[in-house]
Design a protein that fits this description.
Blueprint (H helix, E strand, L loop, with lengths): L1 H6 L4 H15 L4 E4 L2 E4 L1 H32 L1 E7 L6 H13 L4 E7 L1 H9 L5 E5 L8 E15 L20 E5 L10 H8 L5 E6 L2 H11 L2 E5 L12 E3 L7 E9 L4 H23 L6 E2 L2 E2 L1 E2 L20
Parallel strand pairs: 3-4, 3-5, 7-8
Antiparallel strand pairs: 1-2, 5-11, 6-9, 6-10, 6-11, 6-14, 12-13
Helix pairs in contact: 4-8
Amino acid sequence: MQGAAHGAHVSQPALSRRIRDLEVELGCDLFVRTARGITPTRAGAALYRRAVNLMEDLDQACQGARRIGREQANLARLGLVQTSRKLSFVRNAIAEFDREQQGKTISLSRGVSSDLSARLREGQLDITLLYERRIDARGFRERPIHIERYVLALHPSHRLAVHEPVRLADLVGEPLVWFSRGGKSEGKDLLIQQCRLHGLEPTIAHVAESFEGQIDLVTATSGACLTPALTMASVSPGALVFRPLPGFETGMALSLAWSEELSPSATALLGYLHTALDRHQSMITSGDAEWARLMGHEVVRVPASSEREPEWNWTAPASPG
C-alpha cells in the first residue's frame, strides 16, 4: 500500500481513505486486509483489469485526438457548388494555395447549395460557395460574389437560335428543359415566379436535377433552357447557342460563406479566395471580363453593398399591367 501511495503521489492514509470510500460507494470489499498485508478480492481484481483497459482506451483516444488535431490544422474543407468548375477564380485560388502552402491540404466537396449550407452550419465544412443561399447565423460570415442574369441556351438547330436577342414573349408555348431546384414546387420556384411576373407561363417539357443534366437534355432534345449566364463558360464552344433576354432581369446570386472558427490551413485558403475574388470582381466592374457581357448586354455584375435581399434580384419587377 505504501508503494502504491508513493506512485500516486499521495500519503498512505489518504490513499486508504479513498479506497474505503470507493468500497462504500460500490458496496463491496476490494481488498482482504490481514496483518501480513492486503490482497485483492475477486471484485477488486475485476475492477483493476477493467480500469487498466479503460486507461489504455483513453490513452489511444487521446493519441487519436492529437493526430486528428494535427491533421485539422493542415486541412481546409471547401464546399463547391456543382457548377463551380466554370469559375476561374476558384481554380486560381486553389492553384496559388497549393503552390505556396506546402504541407497543407484541401478537401473538396461538391453538392447543391442547400446541402453545402447545412454542412457548413454543422461544422463539416470550413468554407463554401452557395447559390441563392444566405448564412444569417452567428459564427458565420459571407461575401456576395456576383449575380448572374439568366440567359437562353439553345441547341444550334433550334428555331430561336437565329434570333439576336430573344424576348421572353418569344418563349410562350416553347418547350423548355427546367432545372428542378431540389424538387421545389412551382409555387416555391423563384424562377417560375419571376417568369410569371413577366407574363410568361413556362412550358416545361423536361426536368433535370442539376445544371449539367439540364444542358445534357438541351443537347439531346435539340431544345432550350433558361440558365445562369456563366453556364456559357462550362459548355464547349459551338455546342449550344446563348442569347440574352432583354427585359428579364432576374438573376442568380453567388456568395462565399465561411465559419469564423477556422484552422490555419482554412484561414490561408480563405485569404487566397478573397484575393482571387477581388480580381474577379474588378474584372467585372472594369468591363474587362468578356464573359460578363453577351451581345452587348450585361449578364454578370457585382451586387451593390446595399443589396441584402435573399435573392439579390437585379431589380424588383413590377407585376404585369
